[in-house]
Input
Amino acid sequence: MPKVISVQRYLIGTQAAHPEATGDLTGLLWDLTLAFKQIAAKVRKAGLLDVIGLAGEENESGDVVTKLDRIAQDHIFRMMDHGGHLCCMASEEEPDIIPIPARYPKGKYVLSYDPLDGSSNIDVNVSVGTIFAIHRRKTAEGTDGTAEDVLQAGHDMVAAGYVIYGSSTMLVLSMGNQVDGFTLDPEVGEFLLSHPHIRIPRRGNIYSVNEGNHAWWDDNTRRYVDFIKDPASGSYKSRYIGSMIADVHRTLLYGGVFLYPRTFKDDKVHGEGKLRLLYEASPMGYIVEKAGGIATTGDESLLDLEPTDLHQRVPVAMGSPENVNEYLDFLHGRR
Ligand code: AFP
Output
């Protein structure tokens, strides 16, 4: 029988391997996993939102029912604002940096997150997820966090990961060395190590991209997708859920390539891609790279890019190294 390892034991074990560690990061991640369990419980009730309400909000006739992404945002904020581990936070749901309330101590880390990625899919029961990135602060300890603390490149993260609320709830985490996956056992309410040391296949035969944008891509991206659809290139499968977390999770486990390139529509809405660097592309790219894959904007490593804005968008290509390199060859006209 395999040994059962809870995320708590895993975190304590990881801390013990670093004698210099103070336990701050362990405490931060432990608090986060509690927020994920709360969100998982709410996501399970998503179809009942309009029926029962979820967050003490009014219901029945004059009801104001909080949307699930707001609920997820509140859970993370309320779990993380007082632990003394963070100096500030940044979220997809908030336009500005989220300060730690004055009455609580300021810690040495910064948390950036998308509380519920893919939330436009909730009403049709498609997997959604939470993505998070943790950086060490740059400014003096004990003070309020600033933009300088938040706007850091992906390669400076001390940990990152995501939780996918799918047919089961799974936490995928890297603290820099390797990538491990934990599945929530709903009966005991604990994340248990289920996918130790995840490695992405060197090559896969699944491509994942919103082909509805075909007409709006650059020529080289179009040529690449046409190439992999040609039977002479092998038998590729197309899979696109429209929830990055689910599409990248599948890419991580089965291999292949996930793309969200620039689109050149008249309105130029996604001229820089659609996905957000700080709390979507960068932490997902961190996981993919720590698992042996490649994550790039097409021009440079996603992890090298220093955000200039909390909600900055970037084009994204990530996945198995051979697939991503092949895409880059097309993108740069080498093929
Ligand atoms: P939502 O959170 O609004 O559903 O957006 C999800 C997302 O940011 C990402 O998870 C998907 O990969 C991407 O958008 C899908 O975008 P398209 O609908 O343009 O393909």
